[in-house]
Amino acid sequence: MVALAYTPAVWLLNASAGWRTLLATIGAMILFFLPWALVTPAVLRASARQPLGAGRTLRSLIGIGGMGVILVPVVTALGLMLNEVAAWLIEGRRFPPLAQLTQGGTITSFFSVPVYVAVIGVGQALLWIRQASERERLRADARLDALRAQINPHFLFNALTAIGELAHNDAGVAQAAIARLAAVLRATLAVKRPELMLAEEIAIAKDHVELYRLLLPGPLDFQVTASPAAWNARVPALILQPLVENALVHALARIAKGRLSIAAEDRDGRLSVHIRNSMPDNVAPSRGAGSGFANVRERLATLYGTDATLATDVQGGQFMVTVDLPLSTTGDATA
């Protein structure tokens, strides 16, 4: 590309010779810049080792300048030599005297400085892009860790509050609930991966439901349905837990007999998970009802941007939460 960019200016100096001179000029430019093409990957790597900024600008400029003082004349001389060899082979032209070749190489080296600066600039730009991408990834990881860290304390607070109330009425059931709570916490804390299969995620949700069966005032009808692809889809770890907990604590704990269902389906490369629960007659939101939704919405936004949503609705007397996100199965390379 650089050779083609230089060609018009060089050709115009001998344009009177016609198209034959144009073809010869293109060939000469390609030969001249061939050494530059060969050393460019090494120059890019060297540029990445001399980052500008962060208190290293002066030291990096000295390093880049010192490398250029050596590299530019050498690479320029190689390009000129290739042109002389080609002229000797094609036209039978004799090699110029060493003094003339040295003088030509010195003058041409000054014209090669912009090429060296451009390659260094590209190397610095690529380094900046990589550093910016890494910083963004680390910020996203830290943000997700903070959001996940909010889940267990919130769940633990709700469960212990319910068990404390139960202990006044039935110490035996309260003891069983504590044992179930310990099992749930062990399973939850064992989750180290950023993603789980939906089947694993639902298994964790079932553990929560079994715990709350001991705490709820009446029986609970719990159902799960999922298409095969949805069942094997990858989802952010513990993405369903705050939603199921929200239904259990803020709705089903306030009614005598309730129903909770999780339905997952795949369609057109999307995964939709619907969580439906019975609603109490008093639909006034209880304290803390929106924290689970806010947590999940923020995690989805961090992971998928605008490509994932959480929506709520009321249908047939049931409260429904729908999480919609890109379908990613275990066979995909990335989420």
UniProtKB/TrEMBL annotation:
Record-linked Pfam families: His_kinase
Keyword Transmembrane annotated: yes
Membrane-spanning parts: 27-48, 60-90, 110-129
Top-level taxon of origin: Bacteria
Keyword Transmembrane helix appears in the UniProt entry: yes
Domain Signal transduction histidine kinase internal region residue range list: 142-214
Keywords noted in UniProt: Membrane, Transmembrane, Transmembrane helix
Annotated PANTHER family: SENSOR HISTIDINE KINASE YPDA (PTHR34220:SF7)
This protein's name: Signal transduction histidine kinase internal region domain-containing protein
